[in-house]
Amino acid sequence: MTTHHDTALNTAKAFFAAFEGRDPGSMRAVLAPHANITIPLSIEGTPAPWYVFDGQEHVLGYVESVAAKFDHVAFLDKVYTVSADAKSVFLQANGDILATAEKLVYRNVYIFRVEVEDGKVVKVWEYANPVAYANLGIQNSDAEAAAQAR
After folding, report:
1. 2-61 pLDDT, tens digit each
2. What is the 8-class DSSP label of residue 106?
3. Model pTM?
4. 47-84 burial code (b ≥16 CB/10 A, e <16)
5. Domain extents for the chain?
6. With CB atoms counted within 10 Å of each terminal CB, which end of the chain scores lower, N or C?
7. CATH of 4-149 given 3.40.630.30, 3.30.470.30, 3.20.20.70, 3.10.450.50
8. What is the Cα–Cα distance from 113 to 146, expressed in whole angstroms?
9. What residues does 80 pair with on adjacent strands?
C-alpha cells in the first residue's frame, strides 16, 4: 500500500527526472495546471524573488529554456526529505549542468521545496546561489524575461 509520503516522494522524483531528462512531456504529466516555480534568491540581493513562473505553460517554458541552454542537466548527491504532513518534499543536491557548445560549466548547490497535492506538483521553490548563474552571462529566455516582468 502506498502512503501519502510515498506518493509525495515519487511525485517529486518524477519532477526531477523530467527536469534532468529535459523532458517537457513528462514534466507536463506531473504538474498541476496552476503549478508555480519561484526562484526566491535574486541577484540584486533584495527580498523580491528573481523569477516567478506561474501556471503550467509558464513552468514548461522555463523547463524548455533550461533544455535549450544546457545539453546536460544533473542533480548529484541527492538527499530527499518528506515533511511530516507529506505536503512538501525537500531536495538538497549539487547541480552539474553543462552547455557543451558554449563550453560553459555551471555548478551550484540547490535546495528545492516541492509542494505536492493529489500526486501533482503545485509549487516549487528553487534555492541556489544566483551569482553562480549570473556569472555565466546567459541571456534570459522569453519565459525568464516574463517571470521577471510580473
Report:
1. 699 999 999 999 999 999 998 989 999 999 999 999 999 998 888 999 999 999 999 999
2. E
3. 0.91
4. eebbbbbeebebbbbbbbbbbebbeebbbeeeebebee
5. 4-149
6. N
7. 3.10.450.50
8. 22
9. 91
